[in-house]
Model the fold of this input.
Amino acid sequence: MREIFVRLDRCVGCHSCELACAVEHSRSRTLFGAIAETPRPRRRLYVEYVLERKMPFLCRHCEDAPCVAACRTGAMTQDPVTRIVTHNPERCIGCWMCTMVCPYGVIGREWERRIALKCDRCPDREFPACVEACPTRALVFTEEEDFARMSRREAAEEVARSYRMAG
Amino acid sequence: MEERALRRTIDPAAQVMLSLAEKQGLETAWDRLEKQQPQCGFGELGLCCRHCNMGPCRIDPFGEGPSRGVCGATADTMVARGLLRAIAAGAAAHSDHARDVAHTLKLTAQGRAGGYEIKDEAKLRRLAAEYGIPEAGRPKEEVALDLAKAALGEFGQQEGPIRFTRRAPPKRVALWEKLGIDPRGIDREIVEIMHRTHMGVDHDYVNLILHGLRAGLADGWGGSMIATELQDVLFGVPQPKRAEANLGVLRRDQVNIIVHGHEPILSEMIVAAARDPELVALARQVGAEGINVAGICCTGNEVLMRHGIPIAGNFLHQELAVITGAVEAVVVDVQCIFPALADLSACYHTKFISTSPKAKFPGAVHMEFHEETAYETARAIVRAAVENYPNRNRARVFIPDVKSEAMVGFSVEAILAALGGSLDPLLGAVKSGAIRGIVAVVGCNNPKIQQDYGHVNLVRELIRNDVLVVTTGCNAIACAKAGLLLPEAAEQAGDGLKGVCRALGIPPVLHMGSCVDISRILVACAAIANALGVDISDLPVAGAAPEWMSEKAVSIGAYVVASGILTVLGAVPQVLGSPNVTQLLTAGAEGVVGGKFAVEPDPFKAARLILDHIAAKRAALGL
Done:
């Protein structure tokens, strides 16, 4: 299954992913329409800035998802095949157990209904909105194996280059 | 035909060229727009500010993140400041063009210009009288020198008024004075924008936007109008004439020179040099049948209007012309020139020649142009093109067999002449309802909009509903390509407009010139309002820019609205991040200056909106 991976060295902190996420989860699904909607459409990923590094944080859809285990009402469920963790607003009672146990702090709040809000991996799209919006391709939507191979090749290239220089 | 090409433009010549570009792997503005997707939402909404180094700052339009910049600037302040800076750039572009024209007039009067002359002495004397310069019994050179100095003086003037603003109806001038937006000097208002939008100065969006209108007025009734009027003195007042439009005007058997940019100071001389017998002979020597100059954008409009020089296309045609492989030189001056032309020209024998000390392009050949040596430089440029002809790779030449005929050259003077010397026939037609209203459709191409779709469809809808269309800039070229600038196009008009066009022998769409020539439209509006004893804002008129993209268009929008005219934009301006600014521009402004903006990307809906507006204005006038 494909996952959203982050190339941590690529984020420039433009917040385009956040805007695209909010727009995708609006009624009009256009920027100009979304900014006028009530309730205001909310983003489900967060660009953080720590130790002079910028990085987007979003739901990892963990294999053994703590939020699913912690949810008492069955609002948070995980698809047995795709492993996507989804949140059913009808069942949510706003107890915030999921928020407490999430290791990445990426479960937000829909203020108006006082319920949890999280990444749904854009079920209507081939590529998630945040991935498409990223101008530096810091966000990539690919198989775990492919991402690992890409990282491996980048690392290998660096080693090869220094080896050649030394030789 | 590639499906993508059909989606990008409605122009059949451009469709063919885009298909060819795609097959050959050549990149155009449309491709670069795709690579820019998605464009930054903060920028689209006007919610980013780079005016100081505490920033860059952004405001979250969804209200979760910051609602203020580091200094505390709100969305209203950021959006208004950004809009003003666009107006400043646009007004500066038109007005610096005008400064060059006034400077050329001055050098011509002093006998220091290389090849220019005063072509219309009668207009020179009329303008001198308007400026209060004694002219009777004085030689034209002396009068021209005084006029040039007076016009140049208005750029650095510290106290108003700017002379041509007084062409506006007295009610309009009084309103500008009351609002404190009567411009005092052209450069002064632009500088004041830069000051007010500096960190920590003006933060009140209403106060900011009022000043933006003031700078816009300094452009429309100042810089742009000075450019138009003095160009007429130097190069002649445009008169109706027939010419051809679209890429099919390029010649397989001739040296093709494209003039692209905005100032006729250059293109007039290129046209003259291309007729130089020595250079024509040289062209024959290298195997060409002759020298063919064709225009793109507004410098193309200038020589189209005055000499019937064919126009190869509008803004988005600039790369397509090179891709024909038949262009020996693209000669450019300033504004709306893609720096991408350098790399593209390098794929062909085409020489990309820059001429202005203000506008250099990495990869271009720079042949600097100065008024004092204008004709000599123009000859050198034409010679370089002619000598490049043998380098043309004939196997790669593809000129689409697409061109249209057009009647162009409708200056205000020419319109008056067509009306028999007085506005009365036009006023009569408006009063009787044969002509419901008059709409100026102007502006650029923008690859965000299918090329010419917005232009041509809006114009067709308007004339079909008996609205006389006046046009300049890239809309005028779109209309020329679509065959709308011919008297025969009256067949597409409603019965009322058709009758008027037939009686006068004019097209239903009048080509009034380049983008600075929107000032001609202001003059016409003022004359009509004065004849009826009303303000411009009372007239059944509107403006539209269906495919606008440049900062100049923002300045134009500002002065058209500040002149009391509804302006309909086909592309969304970068202001929606502030509901207050948006509300002021699209509603509140009407109660203050009598004009406002509307945004409507669908040309058919835009036409409906304009027709409703015209109907309301007619009803208010009791028509």
